[in-house]
Amino acid sequence: MFGLQKILFIFLFISAIINASSFNTKQIQEDFYNKVFLEPLYNKYYVKSLEKACKDKGEKCYGLRLFNFKQKKYVKNAIKKRNARFILDDKYITQLQLHIRKEIYRLTSSQFITAVDLSKQVFLLLLWNNDTKTLEPIGFDFISSGNMEREKEVKKGDDHYLKTPTGFFPIVSGWRSKGKIYDDNYTMPYGKKDRFVFFFGVQKSIRYNTFKNGKKIKNKKDYKLITDKLNFAIHTHISKKPFGIPASHGCIRMSNALNKFLDNNLVFFKHLYKNGSWIHPYKKPPKNPKNYKLAGEYMLIIDKL
């Protein structure tokens, strides 16, 4: 009997190893780093050089040029600043996994899962390995969450500034941006046309009440915290306010590059794909979809780890 149990254990162990290697985590990590962090830098500082070097030579040339540009001054400085602000190491992942543990019953297969640390103003893309029951880090990017302090700027009729809610949220729905631009000819509240707005439903939150009898309260000490509801989403945002600091009305703002990666890698689209096919009759599917088997749907938001 003991021999059979031992054989069964070895079989399950080997099966777990085989299943765990069914997706290339390292490749996804490299893709995230290149697409979300490096390419926006190159496009900002070296786009003309890239276009000249790789004209009509395809994606392979572009990738090689990006690799060679890693030692450029602006890129090196950006990497240094990024590492000084946040490093996604094993210790952080271990602590984060404690928050995920009570939600494990929802994760019945290996899939992408996301997390937001409001204290660090970072968005983390993770991979839940259902065979090993562990989180594998893919990458991170800086975001901008709700800033209740900006409620003092609100005039009668304006949208309020709420705290970004915390919890474990499944995506509810979403839509693609129309590319609306404000009168300043720069700010795009939902990013460029066709960037996806990931909607997580109406959530309870808090904000300051800065009005009394219809008039603005001047003394901040007289502001009162009240509960309110927020149409909660994570979406692209283009404005002069940088990522990495709270600035939004309560939603989570992210870069165009991060949005494209989440869109094309089906990070929140588990409910919209079946057998590798997009099943929603009205919403546009991603342009370059991949990683169908790892499609996810959940986002964890914490105040501080």
Task: Write a brief structural summary.
Helix content is 30%, strand content 25%. By secondary structure, it is an alpha+beta fold. The longest helix has 21 residues, at 25-45.
Q: Main sheet, how many strands, which sense, barrel?
A: 5 strands, mixed
Structural class estimated from helices and strands: alpha+beta
Strand order of the largest sheet: 3-2-1-13-4
Q: What's the helix count? A: 7
Spans of at least 5 consecutive residues whose pLDDT stays below 50 are 4-21
Shape: globular
Q: Count of DSSP E strands?
A: 13
Q: How are helices and strands ordered from N to C?
A: HHHHHHEEEEEEEEEEHEEE
Strand content: 15-25%
Radius of gyration: 22 Å
Q: What percentage of residues falls in helices of 4 or more residues?
A: 25-40%
Question: Between the first and last Cα atoms, what is the distance in angstroms?
Answer: 46 Å
Secondary structure blueprint with pairings:
Layout: H1 2-20, H2 25-45, H3 47-53, H4 58-68, H5 73-85, H6 90-101, E1 111-117, E2 122-129, E3 134-142, E4 167-170, E5 173-176, E6 196-209, E7 211-212, E8 215-216, E9 224-236, E10 252-254, H7 256-264, E11 273-274, E12 277-278, E13 298-302
What labels would you give this structure?
alpha+beta; 30% helix; 13 strands; single chain; 7 helices; 305 residues; 5-stranded mixed beta sheet; 2 domains
